[in-house]
User: Fold these one by one.
Assistant:
Number 1:
Amino acid sequence: MRRKMRVESVMVAVFLALILAASFLVNGEAQAAPTKDKPMELKFAHFLPPNMFLVTDGFAPWAKTVEERSGGRVKVTFYPAQSLCKAKDDYDSAVTGIADIAWHSIAYTPGRFPLTEVLFLPYLGSVTTETANKVYHGLYERFPEFQKEYSEVKLLWLHAGSSAGLLSAKKPIRNLEDIQKVLVRAVGPNAAVAEALGATPVSMTVPDTYLGMEKGTVDAAFVPTEALISFKLSEVTKYLTLGAESGFGPYCVVMNLKVWNSLPPDIQKIIDEESIKVSPVNARGWDLKEQEAIDLMKKTPGKEVIYISAQELEKWRAKVKPLYEKWIAEKEAKGLPGKKVFDEAVRLFQKYEKEKGSK
């Protein structure tokens, strides 16, 4: 009898093992493992237009490769242009599971990523987005407190965006006096920059900026220069002021933790391997598109590209310098290594600026 019970126990254990091998967990419940015929759909939310270079050159190729390498067991479905959730809610959509994957602009959740926001501080360096991307990764790799800011999700990749150019609908901004009391679209930390310069910041998403500038809700906008093309802001922009760009925009692509943990290990490995490749592609794309946007403004009749002189820029720097001390003090008061993160950011910016200059 005992032998029979042992045999039955072994058979039950084997049966359960076979079930688990052919299944995965979602919210604690066993589900059929994804197959080519019945793939697991991953909902990818972002607020970008489908033709934006980050999508066509980064997100879409990534999704295609992940699908192919998984043998068709996962399928990535994109929800662009705020079709699944609003831009400001992208990150939380991944946390809660409304989206499985989301691309998020850190600017839309001020205070949520306190150390990451060091990248918003203006005039820390004049390096390209590609090298600013290296600064972002360097800070993430060095500071556990930096990494903790992304602990609610599975971080797939993070990347820097270009510095926020200054677009103006009607009034040329050639010096500090020209920006006084001007209504400027500026979100997150960029709002403090606009205010320090004497402008009046207005919170507004990039997709809403077109109507804002067209209807006069805002007179100007701090946005990545490439938005002149991807969001067609060149149609409502007459002047582009360069040399007075604000800090670099940090972004991240994240996955819901439960969904990530439910994936078979081999699919997790594929996603990790492919995700690490996308960040530099995203960053390089900003630099290429930024130059393309500048060239578009230069060749379009009735448009003007204005360059702030080095002497004039020193006046702008003097106005925003107190933001450095304030940023450090606020982070230290919360028990965060604000001074160390700031100093390391400056060091890395200077390092890459020097390397760029030596080439």
Number 2:
Amino acid sequence: MQALEGLRILDLTQFEAGTSCTELLGFLGAEVIKVEPPRHGEPGRTSFGVKAGKDSFYFLVLNANKRSVTVNLRSPEGVALFKRLVPQCDILVENFAFGVMERLGLDYETLRALHPGLIYATIKGFGTYGPYAEYKCFDTVAQAAGGALSVTGFPDSPPCSPGPTLGDTGTGVHAAVGILAAVVQRQQTGRGQKIEVAMQDAVVNFMRVRMLSQYVTGKAVGRMGNTVAQMVPIDLYPCAPGGPNDYVYIFLTTRAMWEALVRCIGRADLVGDPRYTDVPQRNQHRTAIFEMVAGWTRERDKWTVMHTLAAAGVPCSAVFDTNDVMRDAHLRQRGMIVDVEHPQAGTFTMPGCPLQLSDSPVEVRPAPLLGDATDDVLERLLSIDAATRADLRARGII
């Protein structure tokens, strides 16, 4: 069996911060019922240049292992139908804009009265209280508000977006942890609870270590490019043939790693040299060390550099571009990159589940077509017959 088999989730998420949370729980075996508006579904289905009549790849990579049910929450009858589903489920997850659930009459207090054991997770840009609570938010907005942009980039350049969606998927992972904690607590108390995760809060959590120098200096942490303060030779080194991603990142912390590096690059004569033995000494020769190492890396491609140094015990990696990631044999062997067969999109490649549990194998299933499980869920959970479903569909309720 899978770890979360038997848990049923009502998924009212859209875009990424919420969908990444419920997808992860779906990977681990929860039954995820994604509730969407009829006709067009959640906005992510049509984001980022989707072709007419097809779901976007943005939607497909964030909604694997889910089933779709269409319910019109803009209608009183649709809201009533949704409320009938709530007692049949363990968890509800939503990331609508501030105040939407309250306006729909689907706030926590209302739904808890229907289902005291309900675990209700709400994801917001800035939370549901505080001076910023009503501000709208997307990933890089949260990264700006959480401090991540301020420390990303080079000292003489403007702040830069880090690239990975720490504000969105990072928040989704935080929410999944909170939900699982509430599940464990409910096993002891029988009571559900509300979980709140703000995107700004999640980014601040990711910044925990990056902010350390502020405790020492009392000053805001600056941008350092690819280096680490007082640590040499931690940096990004150019490789042949000199393309935009032909680089290797090297990260040394110990004397043994330094000695392994200099042996690899043909400078064994530096082993034991007091000018380079420890970090404080090497820091005094930062530029000279960079040029020495870069002179060796520039003559080799990034894969040769990576495998040569890593085999010698030097922590490093080639800079993988997105094509490299999708084609990487190591990631494929581990099931982190998988091929999925979608009824509409055909075969496409996507990231799989980043968690591996020895007794809970993960099967990555394609994202659902809009409303593909409506009939099954309404019949199985609410005993709504075919004639009634046909009437609800004709009137735009489902």
Number 3:
Amino acid sequence: MANETNDNFLKACRGEVVDRIPVWFMRQAGRSLPGYRELRKKYDVLTLAQTPELAAQVCIEPIDKLGVDAAILFADIMLLPLSMGVDLKIVDAVGPVIAKPLKTAGDIEAIEPFDPAKIAYLQRAIQIVRNGINVPLIGFSGAPFTLASYLIEGKPSRTWEKTKRFMFEKPDAWAELMEKLSDAIIGYLSAQIEAGAQAVQLFDSWVGALSPGEYRAFVLPHVQKIFAALKSKNVPRIHFGTNTGGMLKDFSNVDADVIGVDWRIDIAGAKRAIGGAKSMQGNLDPVVLLADEKTIEREADAIINALGPDAKKGFIFNLGHGVPPEADDKKVKHLVDYIHAQ
């Protein structure tokens, strides 16, 4: 494995003082970079993600081109359900589409338990990446609520009505689904760590559809179980969700090292809600990357200035969600350099 010559990301995760603010971006592996776009002309997303050499190539590109302080595995959150026997495909401009959405407890029982052998390609990609970079590698998984949402809705939704109705009307079946997904996530992330991932992030992209009370009753105990189970792995654990401003105190009530926040909440307010015991990651509005460089600098300054001295202790600069496909990689590189210069 390559020597880790840049460990600012890991130091920030642990709440240590760093010599420069670490920065990486969700969805930096792919989306806006030219190498990824060329590969997508030949391969669909699942083929890329399931071919170790190609996935590693996509993962490494932003390290070379952008100079970020951490790599994130190129994968898709639906690889886990796919490994559990769920019939799905990724449709361009739509997202995950499930052949038979979950409707009954029997449908949940038919989902296979997680078997690490089914993701050997992912473990191999991790090994290749680790041999080719000098920054930490982050593994990841979708969170149980977000995965359940796709499995029940059958495709992306703006309201998640089917998911929430299932949750309310079939609480026992919902609990069974969350339990099965949580156990699978623990195994999935553990397998990534064993292959060489030096940190892991749990993505709960759609959890903002819930109220704080709903989150506490139907989701939080399962997420707490995941983070507690991963503690013994001794790698930083990141909990990220979107639209969590109204439930941030509950969302951060897990044994994670870092809480990621989106752009819908002021960063200083987020820090107060999270408390000083955990590090924080965020939270530039991704659309800012589409603006001119002066605007990008101004918005980055607003985040760093709001944190003051704490910006170099327990803080990781990131977007509030993923890099937009339309982003100019030269502007993304400018942002990285600008953060590093602070």
Number 4:
Amino acid sequence: MPEYNEDQIKMALTAAKDLAAAKEARSQDSPLGQAQISESSEIQANRRRVENMLASFFTKAGFEVDKFDELLAQNQSALRRIGEERKAEAVKRSASRKETLHYAVKTRQKAIEHLVDITPPESPAGATAEFYELLDLPYSIWPTPGLFFDAHYEPVNTWGKIQLDSAKANGYEELSFYFPWANPRDAYAVIDVDAYLVLNGYCQVYSGGGMLPGDRRSRLSVIPRLKLWENTLTLVPPSALELVDENQNGVYLQVDTGGLWESGVVEKEEVYRGYDLRRTLFLVPPRQPVVFEVGLQITYETTETDIGRVFHVDFASGDFEVLCPGVLIKIVS
């Protein structure tokens, strides 16, 4: 493919993502969206007034509210300790799980290399024979600012280590591996794209509980996904068109302790598996560059912003990692 520097690619993709974010923001600024936000705020204010009335009633009736709060705080401390113990156990298992996952990647890689070896690296225009091309090293790895980040580049063994700790009401983070490619022909090419992402990590969500009914909910989603970007490097000013967003279920955790006399809860999930992200019959114009973005999307939201850390996502401790062995392109015609 033609030579492009990292700054060109990054500038084009950043411009495209900013445009997508602006479109989403405009849709949220609609009158209907504003009405929903206003209604939610009104409901929350009413709920707080009811909670204050009930707390006053229980206090006058002789209920030891302070004692309950003390027990609740002790329970919350115990839950956080349990969460740390669970994570420590997962970290101990991370090395053996990494070994198993890497063995699976090597086995898969041998089959892919055989496919690539028996097909030519380029077919003349008009040829109909299928052949394969392997992109085994990303051009770049980009994390969003809210993540702790470390990375290692190596063919078939490129990984990123990320960690998130948050007590914010909501957030969005992502880690992305970018693989540029260009159609080598003077004719249109139809391709199938097969990207592989391997996760070895630990996720946790916490809810504090409470004496009275209330809105105490937290939700975390970790999604492996494949995006294809077209026109990334050929337009001036730099721009890009997001054509495909292929997602798979990774981790989904949700807790709700909004009932009466609810103690806190901590939910966790260990994830150690590979995800095969595919897109078939994608049409690429002659000599046109595209960018394959393979990555991990993290979204979270909570109504509990006064209890400290609610969300913990760890793909960094021990042998935890997000591994991206590469992208296999099958040129169909």
